[in-house]
């Protein structure tokens, strides 16, 4: 079989006809991400690499790679992703095992989460999250009756999730574990699982994650410091207290782009996990709300595209959009919750905004898949409208005869 035969070409006209709210909100968020990486990384880039634009230059390269990957993904029909679901799931499991092998997995700050691909470090958990969405979308189509009516259909993906969680916690990556489990639970609920099953699962997840949280002393310290960061503002509570200071400096309208004080080596991870704090310091509460609004628009339109796919009897495509939207929602909520002190501190980036190659490439690729679903929705609508017009002409000819 010719390799190129798997692609279904999307014309430029079709691509630029996708949902305009989804397209422009995604574009604005990506653009703001570049601006904020450039601003928030100046001090740390200069101190580590000797010039202020190292990280933003890398982010531009990552974005170029993301667009290349996205331009390939958008030409893949969703039916092909449906057939590949089980394969991509096993591929992501392979990566999660591979990253734990000494000499292959790269360790940073005590966490072994990355595989060195020379151009960038691939974070296996980022791949695992989207692969799980692809697999779960196919599972909900194949086993729809079992998910709705039998415990076996409900529990099988949970057993698979436990394997993923075990490997993620070996790295360790507690944040990715929470996001992956939450996404699987939400997709099962959307797929028709009974409410009492969902509530029991929710209770079990809280208990399990609670036990995981207290099993390590550093996680307990994070929990205690999140409750009262000012109890130890120069040690364990330092990061969160500095983030809260950034909000205080920003007030309503901010200090102006580039004028953050906290990014000058006061707030650790200012260009990654805590970039939202720097954004609010520079643009104020108004800027923070504007960014949240952009995410709301993008995610709500992704849900709408998914709903349209479901209504046109394309459940896999619909679940795919829902799953990717839920992934982004979970990461946005957790990151902003951590930045504002609502949730315990954990290493989870803000999608499309924080510095990082794996997160940017995977998230942009997900957006291109959603765009592909919208293109297929429009193709079906055009075909149905065209068929309707032909039927009307034929009926008029019959009546005229």
SSE layout and pairing:
Elements: H1 12-15, H2 20-40, H3 42-49, H4 54-73, H5 78-83, H6 85-98, E1 105-108, E2 111-116, E3 121-123, H7 124-142, H8 144-149, H9 151-170, H10 174-190, H11 195-214, H12 217-227, H13 238-250, H14 275-311, H15 315-340, H16 357-400
Antiparallel strand pairs: 1-2, 2-3
Helix pairs in contact: 2-4, 2-14, 4-16, 6-7, 7-10, 7-15, 7-16, 9-10, 10-11, 10-15, 13-14, 14-15, 14-16, 15-16
Mean pLDDT: 85
Helix content: over 70%
Number of strands: 3
Shape: globular
- What sequence of helices (H) and strands (E) makes up the elements? HHHHHHEEEHHHHHHHHHH
Strand fraction band? under 5%
Q: From the alpha-carbon coordinates, what is the Rg to the nearest angstrom?
A: 23 Å
Distance between the termini: 49 Å
The SS-based structural class is: mainly alpha
Residue windows where pLDDT falls under 50 for at least 5 positions: 389-401
Give a quick account of the main beta sheet: strands, pairing sense, barrel closure.
Answer: 3 strands, antiparallel
Query: Count of helices?
Result: 16
Describe the strand arrangement of the main beta sheet, using strand numbers.
1-2-3
């Amino acid at each position: 079989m010719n390799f190129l035969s798997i692609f279904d070409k999307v014309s430029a006209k079709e691509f630029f006809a996708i949902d305009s709210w989804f397209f422009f909100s995604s574009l604005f968020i990506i653009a703001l991400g570049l601006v904020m990486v450039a601003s928030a990384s100046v001090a740390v880039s200069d101190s580590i690499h000797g010039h202020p634009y190292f990280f933003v230059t890398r982010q531009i390269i990552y974005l170029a790679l993301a667009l290349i990957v996205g331009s390939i993904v958008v030409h893949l029909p969703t039916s092909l992703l449906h057939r590949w679901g089980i394969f991509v799931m096993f591929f992501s499991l392979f990566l999660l095992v591979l990253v734990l092998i000494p000499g292959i997995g790269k360790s940073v700050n005590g966490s072994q989460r990355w595989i060195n691909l020379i151009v960038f470090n691939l974070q296996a958990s980022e791949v695992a999250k989207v692969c799980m969405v692809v697999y779960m979308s196919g599972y909900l189509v194949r086993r729809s009756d079992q998910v709705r009516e039998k415990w076996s259909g409900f529990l099988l993906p949970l057993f698979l999730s436990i394997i993923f969680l075990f490997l993620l916690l070996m790295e360790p990556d507690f944040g990715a574990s929470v996001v992956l489990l939450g996404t699987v639970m939400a997709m099962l609920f959307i797929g028709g699982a009974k409410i009492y099953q969902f509530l029991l699962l929710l209770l079990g997840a809280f208990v399990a994650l609670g036990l995981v949280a207290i099993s390590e002393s550093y996680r307990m310290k994070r929990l205690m410091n999140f409750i009262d960061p000012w109890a130890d503002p120069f040690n364990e509570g330092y990061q969160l207290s500095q983030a809260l200071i950034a909000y205080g400096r920003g007030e309503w309208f901010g200090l102006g782009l580039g004028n953050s004080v906290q990014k000058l080596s006061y707030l650790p991870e200012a260009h990654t996990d805590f970039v939202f704090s720097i954004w609010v310091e520079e643009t104020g509460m108004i800027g923070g709300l504007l960014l949240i609004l952009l995410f709301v628009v993008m995610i709500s339109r992704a849900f709408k595209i998914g709903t349209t796919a479901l209504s046109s009897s394309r459940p896999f495509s619909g679940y795919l959009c829902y799953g990717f939207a839920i992934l982004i929602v979970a990461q946005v909520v957790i990151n902003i919750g951590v930045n504002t002190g609502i949730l315990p501190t954990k290493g989870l980036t803000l999608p499309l905004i924080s510095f990082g190659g794996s997160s940017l490439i995977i998230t942009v690729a997900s957006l291109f898949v959603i765009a592909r679903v919208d293109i297929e929705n429009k193709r079906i609508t055009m075909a149905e409208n065209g068929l309707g017009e032909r039927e009307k002409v034929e009926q008029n000819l019959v009546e005229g005869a």
